[in-house]
Amino acid sequence: MTLPSHHPELRAELEQLATEAFRPELSGIDRLPTLEIARLMNGEDATVPAAVAERLPEIAAAIDAVAARMARGGRLVYAGAGTAGRLGVLDASECPPTFNTAPGQVTGVIAGGPEAMVSPVEGAEDSRDLARADLDALRLTRDDTVVGVSASGRTPYAVGAVEHARARGALTIGLSCNAGSALAAAADHGIEVVTGPELVTGSTRLKAGTAQKLVLNMISTITMIRLGKTYGNLMVDVRASNDKLRARSRRIVALATGAGDEEIERALAAADGEVKHAILILLAGVDGPAAARLLEDSGGHLRAALAAAEG
After folding, report:
1. Catalytic residue from among 44, 125, 163, 192
2. In the chain, which end has fewer C-beta atoms inside a 10 angstrom radius, N or C?
3. Catalytic residue check, 36
4. Tens of pLDDT along 128-144?
5. pTM for this one?
6. For the chain, how big is the Rg over CA atoms in Å?
7. Is 54 a catalytic residue?
8. Is 196:180 a contact under the CB 8 Å cutoff?
């Protein structure tokens, strides 16, 4: 088989990345007892939160910028390939049931499209053109945010997505796990969580993937808190789409108000099942339409609506 002409250069590039480094002290792990391998892996994983902690100021600054744009109607878009792309799609897919986000308000694009969620799509991650096409299909605006995610920080799809989004005026964030990455340099906000060499050389679905998951959790969750999607630490915008979530909705109303079951059922009926509205009905003593008006006037922030009702 003839190797691509760029193969030697790419190999040299990868060898410079901390996430690709070979650890000779682990070269015999396949001979160890399973429990010992598990201990080694657990010890490696325990280092990830500290690596994330070092980047908290950059993460917080990025979140504030995202929230400001989403408050104006912007969207949050994740873009990546392989594990990084799948993590972005996963985080986006969990926002509607958790925070009742509108369709497309938080979304993920992955190199190779939906098929790449379960199977590798050969060559997709190497295409900047594919990233541009995927983002153009979303018709980006200046209020949108694109988060490029790549463990190496060099994946052409992720870097291309950030470069294209920034050229279109969107806010851009580059999340990688190597210092001095092209992805962070291309973005308005660069976040480099340096997790170091993996237990299995180059398998960045391990520590790097864990770090990316933690940061994406922060970006989406804290943004939604800033947008008033929670009341304290309660998911008051939860979408009750199944029995478990309907039970959770009633528990949330109870925790927020201290009301009894019958009162909660009446309030939820008056609020057409909307948890935030039901809480306002119970705490402010208003009816369903008044609760809806107060929340609309308060931009969906329950605390502000309660203050307005008391005023």
Report:
1. 125
2. N
3. no
4. 999 999 999 999 999 99
5. 0.91
6. 22
7. no
8. no
